[in-house]
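Design request, tokens follow.
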């Protein structure tokens, strides 16, 4: 609820100008008639000649007051309400709204734009709060694990096997913290970036093969096979950023594929675009999860949470967006997931 304020200096200044203007106009008309009377163009009984002039002067002042008050009410009061709304907004009140039922179109549009701005700011505030909560949670888990295993290591009677196991867990959680920090920093940098820098032509098919080989130890451990269809393809882009795209999607595919599964990687090309599809045979993704899967820290599907921090696909989405491309997922529970990245080809 906006606080009502007394008439401001702006109100007095604005209405005063209108009143003075209207009154001056009527005074000029009065002087015009007075001049006509002096020039004997019109005649009035000398005994009552001052009465019409005084009446006209009083009428002009009345009209001036009425117009000034009316216009001031229509223009100044909405501005006062908007000023009060901005005061509330500056205090962090994102529930403040301005009535949009004003008769003056410009005022109505101004109110609509203000309300839209407040809605956007409210959403940004919610996202920022969620981001802080999620980051705190993602940091807390590995830090708690490190602290717990470090405490256990203080027991000098531990066997060498247990000691090595605890050290391995500490190193594992330290690695998770390092990956999380790197992902947050990269995502923050990319969100403040509008274009892809340092673009150059390179072999996209070879890059994807290299990314697959980076995870050889993991897919060999699960006895996963790769069905690869990658024809020779030159692509002009930022090689380092695109490596993040393929690494994150391939990492997810390996993570969620069953033992002895197959991951299919294919590349198709049209005259203006190319499309890379990476499909696994995992548990699949529910439709409601697919709608949010590229959001930061979103991990709505418990079957796809293992060893993740919810930033990988958000990074993929941001990088592909900067490349003027698209990324999509096609999946259903029990039928695996296929991620397709579509990128524009540079002309010439």
């Amino acid at each position: 609820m906006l606080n009502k304020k007394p008439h401001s200096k702006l109100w007095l200044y604005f209405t005063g100008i209108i009143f003075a203007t209207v009154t001056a106009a009527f005074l000029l008309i009065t002087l015009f008639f007075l001049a006509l009377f002096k020039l004997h163009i019109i005649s009035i009984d000398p005994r009552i000649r001052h009465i019409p002039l005084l009446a006209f002067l009083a009428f002009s002042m009345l009209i001036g007051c009425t117009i000034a008050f009316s216009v001031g009410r229509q223009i100044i009061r909405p501005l006062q309400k908007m000023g009060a709304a901005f005061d509330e907004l500056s205090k962090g009140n994102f529930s403040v709204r301005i009535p949009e039922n004003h008769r003056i179109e410009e005022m109505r549009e101004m109110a609509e734009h203000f309300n839209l701005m407040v809605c956007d700011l409210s959403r940004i505030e919610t996202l920022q709060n969620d981001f802080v909560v999620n980051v705190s949670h993602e940091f807390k888990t590995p830090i708690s694990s490190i602290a717990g295993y470090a405490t256990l290591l203080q027991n000098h009677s531990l066997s060498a096997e247990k000691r090595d196991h605890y050290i391995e867990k500490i190193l594992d959680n330290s690695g998770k913290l390092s990956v999380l920090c790197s992902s947050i920093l990269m995502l923050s940098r990319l969100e403040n970036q509008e274009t892809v820098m340092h673009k150059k032509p390179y072999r996209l098919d070879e890059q994807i093969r290299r990314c697959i080989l980076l995870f050889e130890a993991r897919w060999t451990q699960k006895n996963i096979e790769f069905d690869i269809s990658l024809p020779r393809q030159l692509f002009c882009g930022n090689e380092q950023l695109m490596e993040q795209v393929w690494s994150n999607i391939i990492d997810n595919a390996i993570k969620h594929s069953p033992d002895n599964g197959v991951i299919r990687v294919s590349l198709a090309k049209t005259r203006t675009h190319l499309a890379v599809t990476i499909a696994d045979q995992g548990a699949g993704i529910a439709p409601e999860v697919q709608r949010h899967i590229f959001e930061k820290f979103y991990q709505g599907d418990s079957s796809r949470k293992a060893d993740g921090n919810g930033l990988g696909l958000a990074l993929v989405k941001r990088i592909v967006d900067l490349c003027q491309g698209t990324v999509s997922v096609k999946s259903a529970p029990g039928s695996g997931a296929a991620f397709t990245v579509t990128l524009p080809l540079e002309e010439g």
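Comment from the thread starter after seeing the answer: thanks! Residues 105-153 form the longest helix (49 residues).
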